[in-house]
Design goal:
Elements lengths: L18 E5 L5 E5 L4 E3 L2 E5 L8 E7 L4 E7 L5 H14 L5 E10 L2 E8 L2 E8 L1 H4 E5 L2 E5 L5 E4 L7 H7 L4
Antiparallel strand pairs: 1-2, 2-3, 4-5, 5-6, 7-8, 8-9, 10-11, 11-12
C-alpha cells in the first residue's frame, strides 16, 4: 500500500500596517511590504469567506497564483490601500443586490426573473431553485443563474410586499 503524502497548510498573516497597495501603470495592483523590503508587481485579492465575512481573512496572491499572505481585516489597512483592495474585491465578486422583483415566472424547476438591482434592471433564469437560491443567513439570500452570475438579496424582509410574495414561490 502506498503511503499518502501529507500536505502542510500554513498561512502567513500580514500586518496591515506593513502592507501598502498601489495601482500599477497598466491598472494592476502592486504590493509593497515592510517599507519596501519585499514587493510584488502583480497581486490578486481574494476573500476566504466571501459570503459570511467579506472584510475579514482577505488573501493576496502573486501573479503566479502563489500565496503571499492573509490580512485578518482589510479595514485596518491605510485608507488608500483599503480602497484599492475593496475595488479589486468588488470586481472579482461582482454581485448586484436585488432591490425589487418586477416579475417572476416559475415552470417546473426553472424560474424566470425580472428584477431591479443596484446596477440596473436585469432578467435571468434559475434552474434548480433549491440548489441555486441559497439562504446565507436569516433573510439573506444568494441566487445563482444558469450563466453563473450571482445576485444578492441582503434582507428579504426589506423588499416591498409584492417582491416578497413573488419570491415566496422559490425561496
Amino acid at each position: 500500500m502506498k503511503k499518502r503524502s501529507e500536505q502542510q497548510f500554513r498561512f502567513d498573516f500580514l500586518d496591515p500596517a506593513a502592507v501598502r497597495l498601489v495601482k500599477g501603470p497598466a491598472g494592476g495592483v502592486r504590493m509593497i511590504l515592510d517599507g519596501g523590503d519585499r514587493s510584488y508587481l502583480k497581486v490578486m485579492v481574494a476573500r476566504a469567506f466571501p459570503m459570511s465575512e467579506p472584510s475579514r481573512h482577505v488573501g493576496f496572491l502573486d501573479g503566479n497564483g502563489k500565496d503571499i499572505g492573509i490580512i485578518e481585516d482589510i479595514r485596518k489597512l491605510d485608507p488608500e490601500s483599503r480602497r484599492i483592495a475593496e475595488e479589486e474585491l468588488d470586481k472579482r465578486y461582482f454581485m448586484p443586490k436585488i432591490l425589487r422583483v418586477l416579475k417572476l415566472n416559475h415552470e417546473y424547476d426553472i424560474s424566470y426573473f425580472l428584477v431591479e438591482t443596484d446596477r440596473g434592471q436585469r432578467d435571468f433564469t434559475v434552474r434548480g431553485h433549491h440548489e441555486n437560491c441559497v439562504e446565507v443567513s436569516p433573510d439573506r439570500y444568494i441566487i445563482e443563474d444558469v450563466d453563473g452570475s450571482r445576485f444578492e438579496i441582503p434582507d428579504v424582509n426589506r423588499l416591498d410586499a409584492r417582491s416578497q410574495s413573488l419570491l415566496a414561490r422559490v425561496l
